[in-house]
Amino acid sequence: MVDDNPDRIERLMNEIATLKVQVAEVQSLRQAEARVMEYLGTQTEPVDEDRIHDAVATRRATIQRTLRKCVDDGQVKRSGAGRKGDPYRYQIAGIPVPDMDAVPENENPKEDGSDDDETANTSTGGGTSSVNRSNGEWKMEP
Questions:
Q1: In terms of pTM, does the model score above 0.85?
Q2: Tell me: the pLDDT tens digits for 31-54?
Q3: How would DSSP label each residue in 5-48?
Q4: Which domains does the chain have, with CATH numbers?
């Protein structure tokens, strides 16, 4: 049965156009994630967003969104305060981040014998979008 209702056809055409935009956005985010991870994998020190942007040559907003996702997923570590003079720096998780303020262990032994590590809050805020991530994957949501 063919439905010739013009309103329904127009609504379906709009839905198709929306889906095409969402698919393109998901593809763009996945490609950006692959390029960012590939670039970070070649770096021996944490790098800031400007260097990542120059190397990856993708829209800055896409890189920022990709980096937030990778940090949230634990694939990438973020250091720095995220402000002028101390920008965020990123590197592949599992590669130790040098602590420039650290005192060598033999010069500042802990008196109580504890082995406590400091932890940093690496959570980031995120906006809502019709394209979101779930279980580490970029996905479209209705």
A1: no
A2: 999 999 999 999 999 999 999 999
A3: -HHHHHHHHHHHHHHHHHHHHHHHHHHHHHHHHHHHHT-SS-EE
A4: 1-94 (1.10.10.10)
